[in-house]
Amino acid sequence: MNSQENTALARIAQIAINAHDVDRATAFYRDVLGLPHLFRAGQLSFFDCGGVRLMLDKPEKPEFDHPSSILYFQVGDIRAAHQRLKHAGAKFEDEPHVIAQMPSHDLWMSFFRDSEGNLLALMSEVARPS
Amino acid sequence: MNATASNAGMANSLGIDGIGQISIIAHDLPRATAFYRDVLGLPLLFTAGNMAFFGCGGVRLMLGPASAPELDHQSSILYFRVPDVHAAHQHLVNMGVKIEAPPRLIARMQTYDLWMVGFRDSEGNIMQLMSEVPRSS
After folding, report:
1. Pairing of strands B16-25, B59-64
2. B131 shares contact with chain A (CB less than 8 Å)
3. Which residues from A are below 8 Å from B80, CB to CB?
């Protein structure tokens, strides 16, 4: 099919995250997670996360009113990030722990909640000493 | 130091590089795997037990069952960038995908028009294709 290049899903440009209180959520993503706030358009608040745009939005219909997918934020040092987030007031579900042993690295994760109750995670790939 | 600069400093010290992974609940993993691989055309990276991992421009999509009833809900809307929203829409129609509404102009930005078309994946999650079409001056 020659239209394959035109139909290729190259990348994820944006992710919608439900927020019942967009002001409160904006403060969390800006001040606690420390993500760059791009702009605000009415009830929509946009952040950048490594080239992917996060759109905080108040759900318009009951059908859309569900928690976010778990987004796994990549960090270099998961213990340091966990400590910082905890001090900044994020509610954690667990301590950083190894979730999978891959051939070349250990995959660490730690789960937390945003201001809207969405479950999110920190993740870090820690190289295995050979 | 203004607020923006201090926020940028915080981001650096927390060290979020980007989004590494997004979880999507799949009630029927073979069906969902077929959809993301054959209809959306995303590369299947690997499977692990009852989970399947896809790549999408450096972000990993993890398809699998909900590990707790609380997590058994629809996915966040993911907006996939495509070069040609009309061609991609036609491709989805040809593949029998449920389209929410025909492609439409969502916003007129300064230098481009933002087009989107909503569709459902095999698990009933709403997703969007989006395309930034440069404005002919």
Report:
1. parallel
2. no
3. 9-13
| Pair (B64, B83) in one structural domain | no
Each residue's pLDDT tens digit, A47-71? 999 999 999 999 988 888 999 999 9
Residues of B in contact with A114 (CB under 8 A): none
Q: Which of A16, A50, A100 sits opposite B17 (nearest CB)?
A: A50
Spans of all domains in chain A: 4-127
Order of strands, sheet of B104-108, starting from the edge strand that comes earlier in the sequence:
A37-41, A44-49, A52-57, A11-18, B78-81, B126-134, B112-120, B104-108
The model's pTM: 0.90
Query: Is B80 among the domain residues?
Result: yes
CATH 1.10.230.10 fits A4-127, yes or no: no
d(CA B89, CA B97): 9
Q: Which chain A residues touch B130 with a CB distance below 8 Å?
A: 13-14
Query: Would B55 be classed as within a structural domain?
Result: yes
Cβ <8 Å between B82 and A72: no
Inform me whether the C-beta atom of residue B47 falls under 8 Å from chain A C-beta atoms.
Answer: no
Do B79 and B135 reside in the same domain of the chain?
A: yes
Q: Note the Cα A30 to chain centre separation in Å.
A: 12
**Structural domain harbouring B120:** 74-137
Predicted ipTM? 0.90
Number of separate domains in chain B: 2
Q: For residues B45 and B97, what is the distance between their CA atoms, to the nearest angstrom? A: 23
